Amino acid sequence: MHSICSQATTVPISNFASGSRSPALAFSKQVNLRFCGLRKEAFGFSGLTHSCSSRVPFSSRGYSKKISASAESNGTPPKSFDYDLIIIGAGVGGHGAALHAVEKGLKTAIIEGDVVGGTCVNRGCVPSKALLAVSGKMRELQSEHHMKALGLQVSAAGYDRQGVADHANNLASKIRNNLTNSMKSLGIDILTGVGTIVGPQKVKFGKVGLPDSIVTAKDIIIATGSVPFVPKGIEVDGKTVITSDHALKLESVPDWIAIVGSGYIGLEFSDVYTALGSEVTFIEALDQLMPGFDPEIGKLAQRVLINPRKIDYHTGVFATKITPAKDGKPVTIELVDAKTKEPKDTLEVDAALIATGRSPFTNGLGLENINVVTQRGFIPVDERMRVIDANGNLIPHLYCIGDANGKMMLAHAASAQGISVVEQVTGRDHVLNHLSIPAACFTHPEISMVGLTEPQAREKAEKEGFEVSVAKTSFKANTKALAENEGEGLAKLIYRPDNGEILGVHIFGLHAADLIHEASNAIALGTRIQDIKFAVHAHPTLSEVLDELFKSAKVKAAALNHAPVSEPVAV
Amino acid sequence: MDSPFLSNTTLSFSSSFSSSPLPHLFPSVSFSPVRFKSTQRRILTVRSKIREIFMPALSSTMTEGKIVSWVKSEGDVLSKGESVVVVESDKADMDVETFYDGILAAIVVGEGETAPVGAAIGILAETEDEIAEAKAKATSKPGASTPSAPAPTAASTPAHPKSTPANAAQTVAEGRRKTVVTPYAKKLAKQHKVDIESVVGTGPYGRITPEDIVAAAGISPSKTNEGPAVVVEARPAAPTKATVVSSAPPILPPPVPGSTTVPFTTMQAAVSKNMVESLSVPTFRVGYPVTTDALDALYEKVKPKGVTMTALLAKAAAMALVQHPVVNSSCKDGKSFTYNSNVNIAVAVAINGGLITPVLQDADKLDLYLLSQKWKELVEKARAKQLQPQEYNSGTFTLSNLGMFGVDKFDAILPPGQGGIMAVGASKPTVVADADGFFSVKKKMLVNVTADHRIIYGADLAAFLQTFSKIVENPESLTL
C-alpha cells in the first residue's frame, strides 16, 4: 500500500511515548500536527495550457548544465534522464509538487502503488470532513436550546448510517477523480506500481506479477506518507477495534466507543460519534487531554467539546492491551499508569478506535541502496527537504516531503514542502517556514492555530531575550457569531510588543479553520501587527474577531515608525 | 445594515470592546483575569483566618452564577492573584482569582452547580491547621441554591437495596466483578446525585447505562422531546363556548420503549379540547346521496371566474339552511333553541399539522363570486396565521369535505356550539335506475350530517338534506 499525503492526526508520542519512543523529541517533531489541504489545482484549475513544456526537448532547458555537473559526484549517473522529476507517491504532497513542477516546465512522473490521493483523500481529511459535516448538522438539529433561541422548532432529528457513510465515500471518490484528472490533463505520467529507489536518480516500479520497469530522473521526491500507528498489544480486527482507516467507512455506530489518543484524529471522531449518539471514553497517555494545543485553547475546548458531551476520559494511562469483542464478550482495554506502570483499570466497551498517531510509510523504498537509515521510520532531511544519508551527508537530487519526513504531518505542509523542492530544483533557493503553516481541527466549533503556542513562545523569548505579549478576543463580542448564536469561542494572539511580530495565533470558535489564514499569511509574508491592523474587514463577519485581535495588541511606539512591508499604493 | 457608511460606527463599537474601560458593562470580553483583578470587586472578605470565597457579581444584572470549573482543587495552596474558579454569569465565563494567600480548604459549590451572588462557594484557610475547622464550616453550610448536600443516596434509589444476601452472593460468585458505567451515565449520576454503587446495570454486559441512572433518579424518561413537529402560532382553533369540566387525567399506559412524546401545539391542544367536549352532546347522523352532474357542469362554467367547489357547497348548504332554520340553530344550555340570524358556514381546513375552521359569514347572502373571493382570503390568512377570532369561531354550521381524497363517506364530529356538521364525500359515477326503469350513470356524492339531537330531529335533518340535494341537483339558483 503506497500512500502518501499527510493525515496523521496525533503526535505519535502522544499516547505511547514511553521508553522505546523518545519522549524528548525535538520541538520540530512536536509540531506533528496534521491536517489536510488540497491545492486548488486539484479541482481542475490550471493556469497552464497544454502545450506547455512537458514535451519540450530536454536540452533546451537553461539548467541542463547543472545536470552534467552534478552527475560527476554521483557515481554511476545516467547520461540522460527519462524525466526531470519523479515523485514517489501520489498523495496531496506528491500532487502539489507535480503540479508545480509542470508549471515550472519539468517533465514529471508520479509513481503510485495504491490509489491516487493517498491518505488524505481516501482515508483521512477528505472523508472525515464529510462525516464532520454530518455531525455538525446533527448537533445543530439536536440542540433544542440552540434552536429555540433562534425561534426554530425541529422535530426529532435522525440519520441513516449507510447514507452518511455513502456521503463520505462519494466525496472521497470525487476528490480522487479531480486529483487524477488534474494531473493527467497537465501531462503528468502516472506510473502504477510500488516505487523503489535502486540507485542515484534511478527508480524501479512495478506490480506483483509484472516485470519491473526502471526509470531515471534528474531529481526524485519521496512522498510516501504514513499509515495509522498501532501500538503493540493492540489487536486491530477492523470491526470492534479499528483505526481511522476503518472508522471513516462508518460501518457501525457503537453505543460506546473508546478512543485511544486525544489529538486531532481522536477529537474529530469524538465529535462525529457523539453527534451520532455514541458515548465516548478517551484514553490519553499524557496528563491532560489535547496535548499539542495551546493550553488555554485546550482548556476552553475541553469545556466545550468534552465536558458537556457524553464523554469521559482517562489521562496519564497507556492502553497496553486491547482485545476485540468476540465470544459474547465486549472489547476489553487494559489500562496501565503511564508513570508507575501499575495496572490501573480495565474497560469494557463496544468498540475502540486507535488514534495514537501515524507512522511513516517508508518500508520497501530501497533506502538501503542509497545508504539512508530511517529514524523511527522517518527519512532524515534538512530544512530544504534534502535527504541525509547514514553518514550525515546530503544525497544529491533526492528529497523527501510530507509525513515520510515527519517534519509536520499535515497534507498541506507536504504540498508546501513539495513546492519548495520544485522551486529549488528549478534554480530558486527556497526554505519553507513551517511556523507559517496553519493547522486545524474540524470539531464543532473548530480549532485552528499557526505558529507557536504560548509556552513555546515564552520559552523562545527566554532563550533569545525578547518580550512576549498575549492579546485575546472573544467570539461573544462578534456580531456574526452572535447572530448565529455561536458566541462560544476565543482568539488568541501571541506577539512581540517590541517589533509587532506575530509569533502565533490560536482560534477556537465558529469557522476557526477558515479564519486562521489571515494570521498564517501574515506570518508567511512577515506582516507586522502595526500594519495588518489597518486592513479592513467586512462587517459583520467572523473575520472581525481577528481584526479586533490585531487592534487590541499593544505594539510599542518605537516599532510603529518603521516602514510598512510594502508601500501603500494609491488608486 | 452592512452599508459601508455604517462601518465607521461599527468599528468603533467593536473596538470599544478591546479597550473597554467598562468591565461591568461588558464583562463578556473580559477573558483575562488581569482586567478583572483591577476592578474594585472583592471576592473574599476577611473572617478571621478562614475566609469564604463568595460568588462574585460579574455584571450588573447577574443574580446567580454557575461554577464552570474549579481551577484549583481542595488542598491546593493559593497565592494572591491566582485563578481559583471559573464562573459563568448571565453574560460570560470569567476566571475569578483570590485576593489572599491560603489553602483551598473546601469547595462548597461544585462544578456545574449554581449559587446566588454573595453565597459562599468555597472556603479558604490560611494555614493547614485551619483546614479541619474550615471544612467543618463548609459542611455546616448547606451550600447554594442547588442541593449540594450529598444527602439522598439511599433514599433516592429505593428500588435497589444495596446488599441483600442474594446480591452479596452474586458478587462473590462473580469474583471482583467491576461496575461498568458508560460516560453519560456517570455524568447523569453526578448531576442527579445517584450513588452508582446502588444501581444495577441493565445494559449490554451488565453495564450501567444512562437509562439505569434516570430510572434510579426517578426522572421521567420522556423528558427529551425534541420540540413540536409543526410550527403553529398560538390561537384557539375553534369556538370554545361550551364549558365542560375536563375529566381527571386517565391512567396512562407505560410508554413504549423508543417512543418520543411531542406536546400539542396550541392549535392542536384546542382541537383536542373541543373534541373531548363534543362527547357531552348527543348526536346522530343522517346520510344522503346527491347527484352532482349538474353541479359539476356548473362548476366547469364558473371555475374560470375563480369559483371553488368549496364555495359552491357552502352556498348550497347556506341556501338549504335558510329554509331549515332549526339546523342552523344551536343548543347552548340544554334547555332551549338558539336560532342564529346569520348563516355562517365554517369550513374545516387542515393547515400545517393543525385544523382550523375559517368561517364564510352570511354565506346565504353573498353571491358565489364574492364567496369564492372571501374564501381565498380566509385561506391565505389561515396559512399566515392571521385569522381574527370572529373569522374562525363564528360558524353556525360546519362543512367538512374529504372528497378530494377519494373518501366516499365519513362521519364528522360535531363542534361544540353548533347544531350540525356536514361531511362531504367524493362524487363518483354510479349506475342508477330511474322511475321508468332506465339505467344511467350519474355522479353521486354521499353527504352525511351529524347533528345535535337535542334540537334537531331526524325528520328535520332529512328534510334539510332533501332541500340541499335539490339545490345541488338544480344548481342554477346558486348563481343568482
Automatic annotation (TrEMBL), chain B:
Q: Name one GO cellular component term.
A: chloroplast thylakoid
E.C. number, please?
A: 2.3.1.-
Q: Which domain of life is it from?
A: Eukaryota
Please give the cofactor(s) recorded in the UniProt entry for this protein: (R)-lipoate
User: Which residues does the annotated region (Disordered) include?
Assistant: 134-177
Peripheral subunit-binding (PSBD) domain ranges (all copies):
180-217
Coiled coil feature spans: none
**GO terms, molecular function:** dihydrolipoyllysine-residue acetyltransferase activity
Name a single GO biological process: pyruvate decarboxylation to acetyl-CoA
Q: Cite the entry's keywords alphabetically.
A: Acyltransferase, Lipoyl, Pyruvate, Transferase, Transit peptide
Instruction: Give the Low complexity compositional bias ranges.
Output: 139-166
- Ranges where the Lipoyl-binding domain occurs: 50-128
Q: Which PANTHER family match?
A: DIHYDROLIPOAMIDE ACETYL/SUCCINYL-TRANSFERASE-RELATED, DIHYDROLIPOYLLYSINE-RESIDUE ACETYLTRANSFERASE COMPONENT 4 OF PYRUVATE DEHYDROGENASE COMPLEX, CHLOROPLASTIC
Write out the similarity annotation.
Belongs to the 2-oxoacid dehydrogenase family.
Name assigned to this protein: Dihydrolipoamide acetyltransferase component of pyruvate dehydrogenase complex
Q: Which organism is it from?
A: Hibiscus syriacus (Rose of Sharon)
